[in-house]
Amino acid sequence: EAAYGQEMNIQFSDVSCNSVAQKIYVELNNTVPCVRLLNATHQIGCQSSISGDTGVIHVLESEADLEWPLSKGPNPPYMVLLESSLFTKSIMMKMKNASSRVAGVVVVQKTSPPEFSPHTTCPNENTGVYTETYDHNLAHCNTTVWNPRGNGLSYEEFDSPVFSLKEDNETEVIKQCYFDHNRVVNGSGLQYPLCAMQLFSHMHAVTDTATCMRRSSMDFSTSPVMVCDPLGGYNVCAFIRPYNSTAFGHKENESVVIAAARLDSRAFFLEDSTGAEGSVSGFVTLLAAAQALREATQEAPPTRNILFAFFHGEVFDYIGSSRMVYDMKNNMFVIDLDNVHSILEIGQVAVRSGTNLFLHSDPVSRRNNTVHDEVGVKCFYLWHASLTDFSQPLPPSSFQRLLRARAIPGIVLADHQTDINNRYYESFYDNAAHLNLTYPSNLSPEEQLEFVTDTAKSLTEVATAVARALFKQAGGNNSQVNKINADPKTVTQMLYGFLVRSNNSWFQAVMAPELKDILQPNPPQYYVGVAKSSHQANALTYLVQYLLANLTGTATNLTQSQCKKPDELPNESTYLYSYLWVQGVVPPNSTQRESFCVRTAVRLVKAVSPAFDLGDYISKEYSTWTKSQWKFIKARIFLVASRDLEMLTLGVGVAVLFTSLLVTYFVRTKADVLFSSVREPNNAAY
């Protein structure tokens, strides 16, 4: 293939190199691969062969066009390029079942279909509270199928590579190469050379989590190679009245209301997940509610404490929430389950015109009169939302993990009464456009940051209602309630930063100088990632941590050196607070930032499944998801010669080789004759 590639006259305007390889290949740099994930029983996702997979490019223009790569095409295997509108389960499964003729698939992200969800119809089916023992009538989504659009594509296994490609100049290069060399016109045969593509995404892990973790532990080399890594990261937590961070376990006479939201989302291509409605709408609302509560809780502290909890890894069997419950049960958290008074979780709340908010509760725990009454009180506080049917179970939510441990009063606030409204649940279409996050075309990026969208106005109203309900639930003074209002400017800035461009002036101002590189001209990644031994969180976690710190913390007069060592000062304590040095804003007519130190109760708490601490890789109680390691990911295109020309070239090469060997043998055997010299007589005269 590559050895017989012909020089391609396809170059990007800014690339100039005399390398032979770079004259043969065009490297594709804006690709995102589908990778392999494993759990206690399965492996899912995609991979290439160890040397990569190569195929002749075929651009799929309709489902009927599948006949060419699957049966009619004379030059298999094919590398199929299709637009996202054709990225359906039926098409993908047809190509999967014809793996001998389809070497791989490249999906070009373009227009959004009416609906698409590659997730399952019953998310986190086996790790929520609704098991056969809890209530068999509610198990396995028997009463409510929460995601009826789910086709389960994200949970299929593909033995060929599948890549995502942005609609940009690289896509145009591939299509032009196809039209110039591969496209069939009026049924005529193809003329060589043909345009081909090679995809590399070989995965190290196989079978299941137990197998890959065992293989990782068996490496006795000086530089051990991990075959797979547990999924996980960090939860972001903050109390309105902080506790000593080193004193774990039960707190006497303390009652805590938990306000929760999830951070992560996923898609078929993990790095393409954006989760605009699935997760961003919820945690942005909770961040805005936390800011709205700051002043009221300082002026008139409620009798109960409030814990803001942002859980990571919830898409993969509730990694973050199950970890917090595990820590509470084992005295490894600053409070225990007996300190938890109730919980209010913010689910998908992308409220649109004509829709309402709904309160979901657990029908099983509400059979207890105390729980039932407390849920009724909380619903009264959120009077503008409607309580769903008493017999309906909770939607997929972190609250379910707390209920597995104890019957705790609580509700989940969402914009759907029965099944999920989100047409793009856990897919790469759940983005800013899906939330109608649009801006006038004449605005600069900074003006877009300040522009209050209709979506921001809707979420501001929800955040205000949530903040007031939390204040009342925590026993706050009713005289303060009407003073609690979320800020629409803050909400619109957060939506812009999380869904459009994280590298903006506001996010720059609230971040630490050493973390400024995580800000990019695009949204952060919402896939949870893998648990790192370096104790580093991912970009999303840091963004939420620093935003929550700036929205609820206190700006101090500490210098940068004091901010790093606050315990040396008489009135500061790292046991109660974290101290974060942030960049600050750039004043007008200045080039220097006004950096300062923030005192905050925000903490990062490990969000890694307890199954990996316990070594129970076949656990049915906790998440066992891992991600395979790989050597490298690469995609490239080139021109490939005909098989006849390849064979002719090979034949000529072999002939030249044997001819060279024969000549070498002959020369060596006759060397004494060919290279002998005649000695002249000693008395020769000149």
Automatic annotation (TrEMBL):
Residues 33-205 form the Nicastrin small lobe domain. It is a single-pass type I membrane protein. InterPro entries: Ncstrn_small, Nicastrin. Its main location: membrane. The gene is NCSTN. It holds the Pfam family Ncstrn_small. The keyword Transmembrane helix applies. This is Nicastrin. CDD domains: M28_Nicastrin (cd03881). The chain crosses the membrane at residues 647-667.
